[in-house]
Amino acid sequence: MERKKYYITTPIYYPSGNWHIGHCYTTVICDALDRFHKLLGEETFFLTGTDEHGQKVEREAKSRGITPMEFIDPLIAEMKDMWKLLDIGYDRFLRTTDADHVACVQKIYQKLYESGDIYKSEYSGRYCTPCESMWTEAQLKNGKCPDCGREVVLQKEESYFFRLSKYAPRILKLYEDNPEFLQPKSRINEMVNNFLKPGLNDLSVSRKTVKWGVPLPFDKEHYAYVWIDALSNYVSALGYLSDDDALFRKFWPAELHLVGKEIVRFHAIIWPAILMALGLPLPKQVYGHGWLLIGGEKLSKSKQDATGAQLTDPYELVKRYGADAVRYFLLREIPFGSDGEYTNERLLTRINSDLANDLGNLVSRTAAMIGQYFGGKLPARGPQEDVDGELIALAEGTFARVNSAMEKLNAPEALGEIFALVSRANKYIDETTPWILAKDEAGRERLGTVLYHLAETVRICAVLLKPFLTKAPALILKSFSCDPASGFESLGFGKLQAGAAIEKIPPLFPRIDIKKELAQAEQIARESKKKTQPVKESKAEEAAVSEIGIEDFEKIQLKVGEVIACERVEKSDKLLHETVKIGEETRSIVSGIAKYYTPEEMVGKRVVVVANLKPVKLRGVLSEGMILCAEDKDGNLSLVSPEKAMASGGTVR
Ligand code: MSP
Questions:
Q1: How large is the greatest C-alpha to C-alpha distance in the chain, in angstroms?
Q2: What residues are paired with 134 via a beta bridge?
Q3: What residues contact 132, with CB distance under 8 A and at least 6 apart?
Q4: Ligand 1 within 6 A of 292 CB?
Q5: What is the tens place of the pLDDT at every residue in 359-400?
Q6: 41 C-alpha vs ligand 1 centroid, how far in Å?
Q7: Rg of the Cα trace of the chain?
Q8: pTM for this entry
Q9: Of 342, 403, 409, 590, which sits with the fewest C-beta atoms within 10 Å of its C-beta?
Q10: CB-CB contact of 493 with 397 (8 Å)
């Protein structure tokens, strides 16, 4: 029989750096769903990646004097490290700069152009650069972007349009005939009331001004609108319209596009319309999940430290508490489909109560008692008592309940079922009191039965936990003489063989002193806030469009610096890493000037430094400022220096 297919996707992430725990949410859930379906024996494909084109990246790179690729590459490397730390087992990490994706986007545009679904016209509207979204005047909220509340800018230019309006009736009908297409239900109402009922306009799908993107095949002056570029990743990743489209034929349509609620509009209106225009089947479901909040607001790069107190850096969190704990928190704590508040305290409380106390204790007590009373060999089961029947029935029924929760994508409910079994097993220990049974020979057979049942329950819990946690289940299964690769076929109660070696394992989740840990987490959060501010979700367009007042200029702190050391940045032919003395202070600065100055030439130079630029890492090297250069029309650079001798630390005004 042909294996069932399961294709699941996360959105592709903006490479804006400084990842926070909110970014991990969609991806961890997708990973758990993917693992779950694999364990069901299905053939799965799990896609994630990065959304790299557009104005934001173009501007960020330019302001640093480097190419967009030089700007992005280190951020992507960081993101991949993060997914590795969290054991995200994707099948493909797609970058929208990948050649096969770019080729596919061009073919999609060509097809839509030829079918008449794309036509040339002119647009004018209000553009939000961080969201890469165009708004009409009526859609603005208090004159600002209705999605993120930031400033928008007036844009007018010749553009190609996609006939989105033509598909509105079909999309409405889609929601009516197939409400499962968009979930949770509340998102359907949002789409219908906010977008479909007021009427859809045709969508501008090309830009002339943003050149960091995919050039259109039929008009090289135009570049693909980033959202069409990005959405296409779901089919380009599988080889759609390429010479090798075997994966596409195998896996499309996707079972699920899991996305945050703020981008449902793109996935549940624009994407289906594009697919309809291409004559492709639609994904079975788009699910718009809720957000992790801090202080009631969406946890985001700019707000991650709104209070300054919460540690939200996934690297730091995984380093301190482990991948399993972070995954568990994300999967268990946030009610699926709704928003959920993030605090370090909630994370630590979950770790202690569920993982350290309930699961950790069950495993360690079971292994320890088998070690103590039976020399580490699993005893045989004897006759059963009523209390055993209860535990066994619960253990045998848990998979069905977990499965039905996962069919609804409800990981918190699925984990709730598994931990109900963990709790029942802990209660079973209290009810059966193995330590009393162990006191005399008469209790030995009963003791064996109790410990067998406990070991078997632990094994079943470990197998059931495999989609959610990636470290502990394997450790448990190994120390209980089971194959860590066991799938759900191994779930039947009673599969452990008497005599199997049961080894003790070190505590899976050491208990955390919450008060002490919270203080430390807060200190780290505050320090990291001072050190590395996030790469901004550019507000640069505000400054770029018009004249500025003196008060704006005064925001920029320009200082005279002296380069006291300089070297090339590894694997980059554009970047130099300078150590610059500014008065008493020494800064590490990375500049894109290696083509114009050698490191030797740089040492001793007096330069002008933008001293209050937010620090960033470029190719892994900290850059705490920018050295100013003049640039001619051919792009040649020359350092800007004070004309007379001037001590470092002096102000430039
Ligand atoms: N690049 C677009 C998606 C294009 S898909 C064709 C994008 N990228 S993003 O980096 O801003 O967001 C990626 C995912 O992270 C989204 O699903 C988003 O909802 C999720 N999250 C970012 N912050 C979040 C929280 N605070 N909470 C939960 N998820 C959030 O949008």
A1: 98
A2: 127
A3: 54, 55, 56, 225, 226, 227
A4: yes
A5: 999 999 999 999 999 999 999 999 999 999 999 999 999 999
A6: 30
A7: 29
A8: 0.81
A9: 403
A10: no
